[in-house]
Every structure is written in C-alpha cells, then in structure tokens.
Amino acid sequence: MDKQDIEMFDVLDEDGHKTGEKINRREAHEKGILHGASHIFIYRVKNHKIEVLLQRRSSNKDSFPNCLDTSSAGHVEAGMNFDDTALKELREELGIIVDASEIHYEYKMRYSSIDKFYEKIFNNQEIIYIYTLKKDIDISELKLQKEEVSDAVWLDGDEISDRLHHKDPEFCIFEDEYDKVLKIIKEREYNNL
After folding, report:
1. What is the pLDDT of residues 31-76, one digit of tens each?
2. Which residues contact 59 (CB under 8 A, 6 or more apart)?
3. What global pTM score does this model have?
4. What three-state secondary structure class fits 123?
5. Where are the beta strands (DSSP E) in the chain?
C-alpha cells in the first residue's frame, strides 16, 4: 500500500476546526478536501539583512519536486495539532530540535490550488498555520530527510521576494504568504535594532 493511502488527515471546516471525519492523503488531494498544514520559516539576521533558510524538495515528491520551498512544512496528521506538526517537521525534515517556545505562530491562512503533477490532478485545499523560528543554522549540520528534502540554502529575504514576484519557477513558495512573513520578520527585527 502506498504512503498516500496510509497517511491520514483530519478533515477541517473553513475555520480550521476538525469535523470528526478523517481522509487519507490521496483522497484529500484528489477530491480537494480541506485539511491542515504547518509552514515554518527559519531566518537569521546577518549584517543587518534578513536571510531565510529554504529547503529544496526531493525529486520524488508528489507535488512541486525539486523546487525551493519554505524552511520546513508538513501536513497535520490525524490526531495532531498545528504546533506539534511544526516541531515534528523541523525534526524530521531538517534534524532541528527546538522547544515549542522557540517557534512563533504568526497567522493562519486558507490556501487553494489545483495543479497537475505526473498526469494527475492535485487539488490542494488547506488551512495553514505559519510559524517563524529565528536560528542561525550551519547547513552542513542539518540532517536532511532524503525522501523529503534534497538540499537547503540560505538566501537574502529580499532576493526571495523579488524572485517570487518575477514568478521564478525554481520556487514553490506562496508569494502572498512569503510577503506577509517577511514583513512580520522585518518589523520585529528592525524595530529591535
């Protein structure tokens, strides 16, 4: 049996509350059933500039293979919550272990897209909780989960924004989400200088 048939999600309502129903990953993306995800943006400040850590998705991902994505992200599995998922994904994908107090919940968003990968429709309907983590990480010390992540890179925060605005196909970060996160980070960091 395929992982997509085994991995179960809680079905959510438009406010992000569990309905009591569960659905497997494959059905969620075939039928466009609303489910949860956590996105974590890791950043640091170097020479008064914001840098953001991005992961390169593995070539075998069922959506957006080989693209640069948020630092860490994952679906909320049945029975879990958004905060625990954020910590779990950091640990599993990058080998980063942090306390819950180190990640900052920033906001919630509703995401909707219909794409095509491997000749199949991918109808992604999500409630996403977005988090930030300020941490200066040496990429060589990351323990990448090879099934999920092939590489990681630090990039200038404004460069990422510019490339997203120019629709650079190397990225699969949601432009609106990133713009809002970068604005939050800049306000927090530059007001503290």
Report:
1. 999 999 999 999 999 999 999 999 999 988 767 789 999 999 999 9
2. 65, 66, 150
3. 0.91
4. strand
5. 8-12, 18-24, 35-46, 49-57, 68-69, 72-75, 104-117, 120-134, 149-156
Question: What dihedral do alpha carbons 183, 186, 188, 192 form, nearest 10°?
Answer: -160
- Both structure tokens of 9: 């999600």
| Paired tokens of 149 | 């992540």
Residue type, 47: N
Residue 142 contacts residue 168 (beta carbons within 8 Å): no
User: Cα–Cα distance between 110 and 73 in angstroms, integer?
Assistant: 15
- Degrees (nearest 5) of the Cα angle 32, 33, 39? 95
CB 39 within 8 A of CB 70: yes
> Which residues, in sequence order, are bridge partners of residue 110?
127
The owner of tokens 């080989």 is 66
**Strand pairing class (49-57; 68-69):** antiparallel
Distance CA 41, CA 34 (A): 23
Sequence letter at residue 189: E
